[in-house]
Amino acid sequence: MDNESKRSYDPQPRTSKEVEAEVGELSSRALDMTQVKGKVSETGGPVTYPCGTSEEKKKGLRVVRHVWSLYGADRDTLDKGMKSLAEKLPQNGWQVVKNGPNVNTKAKTLEVFAVHEKTHTQLEASWMDSSDGGENLIYFSVYSRCFRDTTAE
Question: Is the pLDDT of residue 3 over 50?
Answer without folding.
Answer: no
